Amino acid sequence: MRTVSSLIFAGLTAVAPVGDGFTQDLTNAQREAAIEFTLNNSRHVLLHEIGHLFVDQLKLPVLGREEDAVDTMATLVILNEQPEAAHQILVDTVDGWLYSEKTRPVRGYTNADFYGMHSLDIQRSFAIACLMVGSDYETYSTYATRIGMPIDRQKSCEEDHEVAEFGWQQVLAPHTRKDVFGANVAVEYRSDERTYRDIAAILRESGVLEEAADWVTKNYVLPRPVRITAEVCGEANAFYVPDERRVILCYEWADSFYSMFVEEIMPIREHFAMMKDLKLEKLSALGGR
Ligand SMILES: [Zn+2]
Hints:
The protein is α/β, with parallel strands linked by helices. The protein has one domain (8-288). 61% of the residues lie in helices and 8% in strands. It has helices spanning 28-57, 66-81, 86-102, 111-115, 121-135, 137-146, 151-172, 197-206, 208-219, 251-288; strands spanning 8-9, 185-189, 226-231, 238-241, 246-250. Strand 4 (238-241) and strand 5 (246-250) form a beta hairpin.
């Protein structure tokens, strides 16, 4: 609830220890993959927070839970605006939430989890996958099957996608930019302190904040200036602060995703890639007989 807390946060359940990812020796390819994973998750979370900003600044009606709605908006924007890159951006985002779920303490769920304003991490990740396969069954069905989505559900996701697309188009249509530019969207990379120098440099060089700001100004008219900032927050999270009309991406959040990739996801992906190569070798050996 926005009135209870002035902060609307991304709601990450658990994150890898801060900073550990940068202490590991990586090949150039591994480092590139870790950076791409971090940026892809940053793209989705920035759009999620921009969704909160839209709801607040454009006075959008929200039917259902706002946290689910803005996750949906972020996913639809990526599917529609970046068709070439959407597959990898969203696979990385799904993996991010899946891993976050896996690191849940052994105590399992508590009432607080079920009462939370966010859906459970695993539901957030499956909801993104549902919109993917709902938008294009041919392209995404193999992936949805690999992460365990039943075929029946994959097919019914088409309706989820249609309803979501229609809803967001309807509420945003009156605010679409035609001739006039709306209020400015300022971007700022704030002091990174020493601890987060590496991740701050990665974010700054990628221009991921500018990318989000440009998408807003090119497409929509905001009534008042807003800001998107990257900074040290004291926790691994992302926020929209209504009082300040500001989206915040915390360096700690990006840093935790970099570490999550290096320590948990990269070994699994490398293992699967190796198994796939072995299988292909075996098949070609059999074919050669
Ligand atoms: Zn949120």
